[in-house]
Amino acid sequence: MNEPVQHDIQMGKDVGRLLLRCADRPGLVAAVSTFLAEAGANIISLDQHSTQQTGGTFMQRTIFHLPGLTAARDALERDFGERVADVFGMDFRLTEAAKPKRVAIMASKEDHCLIDLLWRNRRGELDMSVVMVIANHPDLADQVRPFGVPFIHVPARKDIRESAEQRQLDLLRGNVDLVVLARYMQILTPSFIDQVGCPLINIHHSFLPAFIGASPYRRARERGVKLVGATAHYVTDDLDEGPIIEQDVVRVDHRHSVDDLVRLGADVERAVLSRAVLWHCEDRVIRFGNQTIRL
Amino acid sequence: MNEPVQHDIQMGKDVGRLLLRCADRPGLVAAVSTFLAEAGANIISLDQHSTQQTGGTFMQRTIFHLPGLTAARDALERDFGERVADVFGMDFRLTEAAKPKRVAIMASKEDHCLIDLLWRNRRGELDMSVVMVIANHPDLADQVRPFGVPFIHVPARKDIRESAEQRQLDLLRGNVDLVVLARYMQILTPSFIDQVGCPLINIHHSFLPAFIGASPYRRARERGVKLVGATAHYVTDDLDEGPIIEQDVVRVDHRHSVDDLVRLGADVERAVLSRAVLWHCEDRVIRFGNQTIRL
Amino acid sequence: MNEPVQHDIQMGKDVGRLLLRCADRPGLVAAVSTFLAEAGANIISLDQHSTQQTGGTFMQRTIFHLPGLTAARDALERDFGERVADVFGMDFRLTEAAKPKRVAIMASKEDHCLIDLLWRNRRGELDMSVVMVIANHPDLADQVRPFGVPFIHVPARKDIRESAEQRQLDLLRGNVDLVVLARYMQILTPSFIDQVGCPLINIHHSFLPAFIGASPYRRARERGVKLVGATAHYVTDDLDEGPIIEQDVVRVDHRHSVDDLVRLGADVERAVLSRAVLWHCEDRVIRFGNQTIRL
Amino acid sequence: MNEPVQHDIQMGKDVGRLLLRCADRPGLVAAVSTFLAEAGANIISLDQHSTQQTGGTFMQRTIFHLPGLTAARDALERDFGERVADVFGMDFRLTEAAKPKRVAIMASKEDHCLIDLLWRNRRGELDMSVVMVIANHPDLADQVRPFGVPFIHVPARKDIRESAEQRQLDLLRGNVDLVVLARYMQILTPSFIDQVGCPLINIHHSFLPAFIGASPYRRARERGVKLVGATAHYVTDDLDEGPIIEQDVVRVDHRHSVDDLVRLGADVERAVLSRAVLWHCEDRVIRFGNQTIRL
């Protein structure tokens, strides 16, 4: 393939992503790859996973190059639905790499996760379109503005939760493909999660053993833990119990103060959240029951 | 210092370890180091820790070289008690590096932790004297015998717990300085722990989030965890809740089967347990409340 | 699929592995998966990689289940060659999961890598058939014999290299599918590597920056390195420069003595070598130029 | 100790740091700790290291609390010199925790290390006073200004090195305690290093095996490395060969593109450089020959 095409692919031009999930059975890979070959698409990469060696659920992520994808997309989607997905009982999703996801970031007073996402986005490491930052405190406005992203202050507390969520929904609904909770310290109701109409990704600290509730770092230090960590997950009605996307830890010891643990925990949190958002924006993460598969 | 002395120190000859703990106050380091200097001892290394910057608990581990230590030890211990420890209200312990701890390992059917300990001991990496292996199943006898360590089969089950523990106590009491539970799958009663007369170290798997009970690896996989880990801790009456000595994790993903998780978990377990036993045998671990300080 | 079949697959019965490599072009995945579907095989997993997004080299590893594989294998191989491989100019290899690789381990005086391989094999973690251990020193005979593996002492030194290699070749040629150099401290000549007729995997320590030659751990400590590591690679004529299969490191600091570095380095070496041998035995590693792709 | 004093210590008020280095001999710890006790200082923490168990070089870092330190400092320094340092032939340095180091950061076009340092400083994680950023390109001005730090553009290229270094020296000499090269891509001459009058810390990528020269990430990928890393070190006349302060690595595999390696490498670089600068600013790093000891 010639150089200009190579360059287009790197920019995401004419590159499609096909994600699918169905009951496992023979012939799936052949059916999908034959469809794509006949449509004139070249497979750039293909990853698949079965939850069991036989009889489980099959998931596949295929990246392909098809000249003129944007114009052809609707027809391709319809054809794939009729000729493949319906035959095998597949859920599927077809996206274009050149169309970044529209993302809202919700934050509170802590900057580490928020700034890491904005900074990676500006550097070109994290392909997304950050359409707004919603914060329940005004503190971070000055830090966000230089990134050229709207900063919207929506006060939120327990006593005004209903009206706050209504304002947030007015801002978000239909406007975003993903909401990232970047240390947004308020509980979101099941009603909000239901109505917002797109996935939400959250980050929380995690420890061995677990410390739920207030002052987790202080209690972790009192227990003498040797690792502190963070977990990024999709938000479900079960607070902090949704499907895990990514986890990581950092070693600590008795010489670390509570402040040190908070600082090291912040480093893990921002790294874990940024990886989870990156993988989601690259359509790598497939939900399956209460877990995720990263292809 | 001349070469023969250097060599003696490496062999632990004439090398003492002084561990102490007391309420923090000015002058502690000066008092201890002046005592040792006046006794003719040279400090090889000194590590200390205070639980708070002021007003907390002070702990110190001092390694020193004193020609003729074995002969002088009792007098040294008495003098230190009178001239330093009593003055500052210290708990202290004085050990000789040349006298390895007597260790019993309790095992069941799984070999990975047991063999790793015996193998490191044979290689000279882990200075201890393994005086017996007690197992509630006979399966590992052939694996243990080539290491030249007595293998004693004491059947143990829930219904014969009392008599089993009595036989174990008969073997252990007065004969060992440490009991290592190397995947010994039986519960030990508070009475046993109380009577055995020495510390016990246990290893258990650990996950984020935690899975307590049966089939933890299967449940961890169903939850889609990204890390599996292990925790080594001193045994207290609270099962699996004693002071943590060491923890570690290994990354996993959806491609790992339950068997893979078990295999990777075994690697972490043996590494973590071996490190914990090593540090204990080097007198590096000081207990403080429900945590440990590793100096 | 019913339970007995599920169990057969876990045992590797009727499970085939197809590895292939060719110039990338559209239609490859479709051609291979259609061939397998028509042959009655069910794809269990499929991993592929292209060295460039377009115009590079394409590699694929496909695991499939085909009842009666052993009987059908020769015909399947011939058909695939004619109908797919010849058409696309593919190199390919077809193996049966139920037929473990025959492996010889060459060692010297150090036991850590050798014992780790034998121990994982005995535990069932590392599916291979260890047909012999060849050592240029007799020291490890007693450690190897309990594993039920022949231990063959072939003295080897610089001055008798030619005759030693001839004896080793007499033992190995035609009898093994893989030679693992488990800290075998002798140089092997290009002539030996050429004649042995199977791949060789070697392990060596590695540092940042590199210390080539004698006493690497001493020099690493003098340089104050913060990481020590190990690299497992296929052996080529360029000593220690062959395609890398796996690498890892462990953190160290100024408190670690040279002995500590050697001990920690041994832990990394055995872990890295065991992973490399496991992946090779599972046909996961494809060589490409002077690198490897692990599918 | 009462609450106000506890708070003062956390703020660094009346907290001193004493670093010393001398030939090892008995009585050193006693002499120093007795001196401090007699001066009315309370030892908060004490770390020491000997390069050999006997006969080597002894290094110690002592953190102490002394009410009225700022006023008493000069006398304390003089007394310690006369009564302890001169007696034992010590090099020593006495600093006040409340007086942060004055730091200049030199950068070029890449932002990741520079921004991470400024951001941690603003968060209060990294106690230093950034007095200026000097860059040989104007690109990063807009990113630096919101941090309230002067951005000074000093064009520098091979052909104008002499005049550029002269301008840089005019800015730096006498004004800073540390220069951090945050991906400053120009060579600095031995003359500059000699005249600048303070330590310099540099960051560079590091690989196993090493790739020196242009396009290291491309060559690392072609070699199929499994780890990419970074090394922070003090600058000496030997380019990139000065005493190592910190190193770290991240795992990569064949699925990572060159862009991915650059991105992951940037994450390691900024983490490693920030840790090195933090430890230096806390007076934790002692140089010894061509290595560092971190106490």
UniProtKB/TrEMBL annotation, chains A, B, C, D:
GO terms for biological process: 'de novo' IMP biosynthetic process; one-carbon metabolic process. Pfam families: ACT (PF01842), Formyl_trans_N (PF00551). Keywords: Hydrolase, One-carbon metabolism, Purine biosynthesis. The keyword Hydrolase applies. Its EC number is 3.5.1.10. This is Formyltetrahydrofolate deformylase. It comes from the Bacteria. It catalyses: (6R)-10-formyltetrahydrofolate + H2O = (6S)-5,6,7,8-tetrahydrofolate + formate + H(+). Belongs to the PurU family. Residues 17-92 form the ACT domain. One of its GO terms (molecular function) is formyltetrahydrofolate deformylase activity. The keyword Cell membrane does not apply. Pathway: Purine metabolism; IMP biosynthesis via de novo pathway; formate from 10-formyl-5,6,7,8-tetrahydrofolate: step 1/1. Catalyzes the hydrolysis of 10-formyltetrahydrofolate (formyl-FH4) to formate and tetrahydrofolate (FH4). The active site is at residue 240. It is an enzyme of class 3 (hydrolase).
